[in-house]
Structure formats: structure tokens, C-alpha cells
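New to this. Please check this fold:
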Amino acid sequence: MTGDPAADRPREWLAMPGGRIRPVVSIPGPGGIAELLAYGAWLARLRPTCRCGQPRLGSGRTCGSAECIAELRAEAGL
């Protein structure tokens, strides 16, 4: 085991019209009701997010948008 929660995913698949399949992840919800998320959306939840809510780029502190970079520079006094 690598310690990465996404290492052994996807294990669930959703049959789509036309015979296609999509990887999904079941998320337990209130009352035990599961929510199906697309695998990519589930992975995005695991990534650290910027203050604007978007996933951060690499090991950075922002998503890379001009607005978020400007705010970070202003906080640092640059």
C-alpha cells in the first residue's frame, strides 16, 4: 500500500447508455445513502484547494490564477 487513498481506485463502474462505462466512487451520505461521484471529481476533492476553491497547482499555494497570485503577493508584502 502506498498510503495514497486514490492508489487502489477506481473499483466501481457505472454503465452508461450505448455500452460505455465510467469510473465512479460511492460516497456515504446522510442516512447511509450513497452519492456517486465521477472518479475525476472525487480525486479533485482529495487535492488541497486554493482560497478560491480551485485545486492548487503542484505543491504550490495557489491555483495559478492571476487574482490568487496577486493576493498571495500582497500578503507577502511583495
In short: The chain has two domains: 8-46, 49-78.
